[in-house]
Amino acid sequence: VQLLREQGFNTLWRGRRTLEEGELPAQEIIEGIILAVSGALLLTPGFVTDIIGFAGLIPPIRVLL
Q1: Distance (Å, whole) CA 62 – CA 51
Q2: SS (H, E, C) 2-54
Q3: What are the 10-residue block averages of pLDDT along the chain, 65 residues in total?
């Protein structure tokens, strides 16, 4: 939960900074959605859902998604 919270706040701050620069924070929005889905998958019981949920928390894998 702490890792998810930290990654979420980092994404939020990057999105705010991008908005202040006058650009659309599309990458940050997509990362936020992936983080939310990953968090939900981690709460869902099951080995496969945990693997997919943890994969969404790893930044290089999240960029590939």
Answers
A1: 13
A2: HHHHHHHHHHHHHHHHHHHCCCCCHHHHHHHHHHHHHHHHHHCCCHHHHHHHH
A3: 89 94 93 93 93 91 83
pTM to 2 decimal places? 0.85
Q: H or E element: which one contains 63?
A: helix 59-64
Both tokens of residue 18?
């991008």
Is 56:37 a contact under the CB 8 Å cutoff? yes
CB contact at 8 A, 38 and 53? yes
